[in-house]
Amino acid sequence: MNLQLIYISVLMFGVAGLLLFMYLQAWIDEQHTVSEEKLQQQAFNQDFKFCSTEKTTRTRNWITAGNLDKPSKALAKSRHYQGEGGPLLQSKDSLTTKLSEEPQKIKFLLKQFKQVNLPSIMHPLNKNFIKDDHWKATDEMQERRRSFLYDFCKKYVSEHRPRAHLVRMVSRIYVEEQHKLLYCEVPKAGCSNWKRVLMVLSGLAKSAANITHDTVHYGKHLKKLDSYDLKGIHMRLKTYTKVIFVRDPMERLVSAFRDKFEHPNSYYHPVFGKAIIKKYRLNADKEALKTGSGVKFKEFIDYLLDSHRPVGMDTHWEQINKLCYPCIISYDFIGKFETLEEDANYFLRLIGAPEGLTFPNFKDRHSTDRRTNSEVVRKYLEDIPNRERQQTYNFYYMDYLMFNYTVPYTEP
Questions:
Q1: DSSP summary character for residue 24
Q2: Phi and psi at residue 223, in whole multiples of 5°?
């Protein structure tokens, strides 16, 4: 009997020690994250002062009536301002010119990127499989995007080359061996259908249409780059074709909110919803606190902007520059959700994909919901005060710059 009690006591002591270790590890990680976010927020507040009332008359708050989907002057003449990069590099009124007026501020922001080795040249795309002029316009747009991102990173990041943890940087990248392809997953930018395509390319499925959402995200069929040893990672980064698909930051944010909080969800409601409601809703009722359902967009924005969030970040609304490190990893192809099918199908032709394979255009979940676009975003932001709108833009500032999305304010 005594031996049994001793055994149970030792077991309980061990479990308690393990729990204490896990708690301390989580606490240390949280403090590190909070410290980084605090520094970034201070940098925005002190250096840029986007929200300053002194600049209210000069800086038009973005996404006020009529301004949401208007391109800046530098982009107004482009064929598709969401996809063009050239004008911003050439125009007197361009974003790059404006950034060069305050280089130290931009460089300070870009210190968050742990530079490994920025290539001295931009590798050309292999166009051996393109046999006609059908893709000429798409190809020209692609070259502008690549040039813009490369020049931007070279100008503002090349001076900062501290070491980074390579395995962490490639943790979002999927590997398709047959076509020597690396795809960096950006949630809410067509990633579900892209993973379906990867499964077809690798011979795991005959058609993308027959692959369910759960198979795509929870089936563990696709291999990630961080599963290889360091030699394998370096070899693939150097020789494989690297692709990333991005999306307008605000559209991506609203799309994530609608998907995770406006429909039943057994993970996001209890994990994020309960914490958000508890901290940001006054006089929350017991049912909401118990289930975490019914989070309002304003509450979600409060959570996003809080440097002391009650629960951490999530990949569905994390900044793209922190998911895929586009100023460190030199992507060969930059697609955009705004021209998703056109870009994706051109890319499939570039890599020599089977002729019958085209990019899927269906929504596998909430198919009756309207797709999130600038009009939908405007509606969601109606109840967000101007200051919080601008702070939300500040949060995604680097994504706007890197991928040449329209500056969400206009000159008077």
A1: H
A2: -95, 140
